[in-house]
């Protein structure tokens, strides 16, 4: 059974070990780190301030997904509006030995449940690079829908242009999703 808990600093070693190559790492981090590979300290500096508190205490929620064997996945949520009604998922990653086994969809559904039932969000959004079809398909299977933006977000990664596909789900749509 998969469950969520707050991210702990000691989770970093396991999570960064799933990025066995730079492409996987860049897909996970959206180029938010200057170098590859990163260390546990790099990840924790991104998430926590010098006092050990969450970097943006009322706006930033790093979560770890666990099963009976330990850490199975990770993501962050952050508010993207002042009214705290819109949450954005990011840094989504699943243990590379468990990919393709339904863990991603289950973890995303747990994130949705947290966003809508606990955090009281009305909208949950996520972006995914267009060259990451497995993640895109996972988000769609979990219930996210494509969003057409006026201008597509594009990043340069290793000399290539990576386009971001935007997805979202509304609170009312979440409650009508079939439960697996």
Task: Describe what you observe in this structure.
The structure is a single chain. With 180 residues, the chain is α+β, with helices and mostly antiparallel strands. It has six helices and eight strands, in the order βαααβββαβαβββα. Strands 1, 2, 3, 4, 5, 6, 7 and 8 form an eight-stranded mixed beta sheet that branches. Helix 4 packs across helix 5. The mean pLDDT is 92.
How far apart, in Å, are the first and last alpha carbons? 13 Å
Helix content range = 25-40%
- Bin the strand percentage: 25-35%
Could you tell me the number of beta strands? Answer: 8
Sequence stretches where pLDDT stays below 50 over 5 or more residues:
none
The secondary structure category is: alpha+beta
Query: Biggest β-sheet: count, sense, barrel?
Result: 8 strands, mixed
Shape: globular
List its traits:
180 residues, alpha+beta
Topology:
Elements: E1 3-6, H1 12-17, H2 22-29, H3 40-47, E2 60-67, E3 70-79, E4 86-94, H4 103-118, E5 123-129, H5 133-142, E6 145-147, E7 154-157, E8 160-170, H6 171-174
Parallel strand pairs: 4-5
Antiparallel strand pairs: 1-2, 2-3, 3-4, 5-8, 6-8, 7-8
What is this entry, summarized?
29% of the residues lie in helices and 31% in strands.
